[in-house]
Amino acid sequence: MPLRQTRGALLVDVGGVLLLPNAELLTPVIARHGGVDTEADFLRAHYAAHNAAWPANGEPCDYYDLLPGFAGVREDRRGAAADDYRAVSAERNMWHAPDPASKEALAAFVADGVRIAIVSQADGTIAQMLTEARMCQEGDGPGVRVDAVLDSAIVGYDKPDPRFFLHALEAVGAEPTQAVHVGDTVPADVRGAQAAGILAVHYDPYGDCDDPTDHEHVKTLADICAYLPEST
Q1: Could you say which DSSP state residue 15 is in?
Q2: Do residues 175 and 153 make contact, with C-beta atoms less than 8 angstroms apart?
Q3: SUPFAM superfamilies recorded for this chain (predicted)?
Q4: What pLDDT, in 10s, does the model give residues 57-80?
Q5: Which end of the chain is more exposed for a tag (fewer CB within 10 A), N or C?
Q6: Are residues 108 and 145 in the same domain?
Q7: In which domain, by residue range, is 74 found?
């Protein structure tokens, strides 16, 4: 029986890469405080605030406090906007909107023989969220079939603990040198993958990273293709 042709392994973060903040629900929250009023502008503000909250260098800040400023809310209304945004977000996990372009890229990687492990800092529900979003799942289902879906609350290791990333490699039968990890948070995703000896790529759609020369970057999930090894 011929050996399966593979292009190494891809470890993929969920929030901000596969599942996005639900802009349809969250944009009106910001708009009523005088901020951006389109979903595209909201997502642009989100990534700027996220990168500022979790910088490559310096101390982390509160994402919810930062978001209104990046979203164009007047300074005197930012506190109220942050409180409102935080309250709405607490009603349920708002990071549940699937990114169609990322799903298409994920399917293409699977078709090309890339072993895929989903590696999420989560609360035990990430597999259900991905299935409900029709993004991906282990085995048959409504989304892309991937090799493993790993939730930190179930595995027992949180990012950036390198053991979480090494556990993902074990799940797909790959060595660190055969793998690439992509995620949108430098302290958790990039630093964790680097500590595990895995090539770390920052998912940074708008070039918001405060230290762009420190590690590799992509603007779309499809761009990861350039970092994957050739078929073996």
Answers
A1: B
A2: no
A3: HAD-like
A4: 999 999 999 999 999 999 999 999
A5: N
A6: yes
A7: 22-90
